Amino acid sequence: MAPHNLMGAVSRVKLMNALGGRGSLGSGGSSESPTIKCCIRVRPFIQEEISGSRSEGQTKLCIAMPTQTHVEITNDEDEKRTFEYDRTYWSFDKVHPLAASQETLQTELGEQMITQALNGFNNCIFAYGQTGSGKSFSVLGGEGDARGLLPRIVEGFFDRIGTLPPQTTVKTTVAILEIYNEQLRDLLATETGDGKRAKLDVKQHPVLGTIVPGLTEAPVASSQAVLQLVEYGVKMRMVSATAMNATSSRSHC
Q: Are 251 and 178 in contact (CB under 8 A)?
């Protein structure tokens, strides 16, 4: 990162910390700082780990979560290492005193992201982990109570928009960009006559910052419209089967 870009980033972080999440459209501000939070979530064993050929039924739980910010990992020699995070989520089972559901993530992370978005801050969910570790479940989830962060945030965002003053103007659009083999793919774009999509590049704009010219931005007016586009974009992603996940994504979105 160039020195002037680094200083700009530092200035933005200082500004966000100073504001503390206060803005003109939020509901009275927030005591939480709208900066980076690093969280970890522990999922249950999947069938491949319980009875798959790689484990041969020898699956062992080696992680513990004594508090909401600490994780303990024990190796085969019973050596314990402790790691600290902004928040730890135990979803291995439902009997643990710190058991966390999809709703827990929404209450603690999603609601704050909605507030910061309405206060004018950019938001990002960066889910990191090996294939089959539960990233898609945490972000997208399933049906009903199994809904993940993204659909819950979208629903909450539009619910919050409905409470804004009548004179407030809000414009919402959806774009889905995939990075695959160092190439950018517009997952909402239609293919050309030769079956190819237009080439995309990341650019730096002096006012708008990082932009992708030509990226499809579909206007939406409801959470249902957003989630329909997300469902379409997910189907267009590059996926392939692995030993841990039959539909593992090969890309970043």
A: yes
Whether the model clears a pTM of 0.85, i.e. scores above it, the answer is: no
Per-residue pLDDT tens over the stretch 75-106: 989 999 999 999 999 999 999 999 999 999 99
For the segment 130-179, what is each residue's pLDDT rounded down to a tens digit?
888 999 999 999 999 999 999 999 999 999 999 999 899 999 999 999 98
Q: How far apart are CA 150 and CA 9, in angstroms?
A: 26
87-90 and 39-42 as β-strands: parallel, antiparallel, unpaired?
Answer: parallel
How far are the Cα atoms of 43, 140, 187 from residue 218, in angstroms, in the given order?
Answer: 34, 20, 11
3-state secondary structure the chain: CCHHHHHHHHHHHHHHHHHCCCCCCCCCCCCCCCCCCCEEEECCCCHHHHHCCCCCCCCCCCEECCCCCEEEEECCCCCEEEEECCEEEECCCCCCCCECCHHHHHHHHHHHHHHHHHCCCCCCCCCCCCCCCCHHHHHCECCHHHECHHHHHHHHHHHHHCCCCCCCCCCCEECCEEEECCEEEECCCCCCCCCCCCCCCCEEECCCEEECCCCCCEECCCHHHHHHHHHHHHHCCCEECCCCCCCEECCEC
Angle, helix 223-235 to helix 149-161, in steps of 10 degrees:
150
